[in-house]
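User: Watch each token:
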Amino acid sequence: MELVVARIGRAHGIKGEVSVELRTDEPELRLAPGSVLATEPGTAGPLTIESGRVHSGRLLLRFAGVTDRTGAEALRNILLLADVDPDELPDDPEEFYDHQLVGLDVVTTAGEPVGAVREVAHLPSQDLLIVVRPGGGEVMIPFVTEIVPEVDVRERRVVVAPPPGLLEDVPDGDGGTDADGQDGQESR
């Protein structure tokens, strides 16, 4: 199974280095020199990491065959994929791979169904569980311990302790009723 481990960012300098946005908690394992990473179909093809270093808090990589800034810029925004055994688990029991979370049922601490995890969104500040609601629509739940106190992959369940308003239905502006009971549509 292929997992996204990084996204290539801007070129750094003139010798072919690129910055990368990490999508793995194991960069020393997944992004080590000599690692061969797949890319999205139709992009650069497999890339071999020639070297890596940290500069000003950012990981910089150089790939075999990429020797100048022009070649590095051509790789911008390409996702790097590592081949991982689907049964492999992270070393930390509090960490999960995206494929382990997708499809899990989500319930509140009171046992009320919320929906099922459709995907995990990796944002700069934190990860979000995108949960499809049983009646339609979706809700984004911050994947932090305070809100998601329990993940049980074996039981295929995620327990959430949502703060007030997180799971409330938000009007979408298409129909519905407004404060005075009207249907929200204007007549002309």
Observations:
- Confidence is low (pLDDT under 50) at residues 173-188.
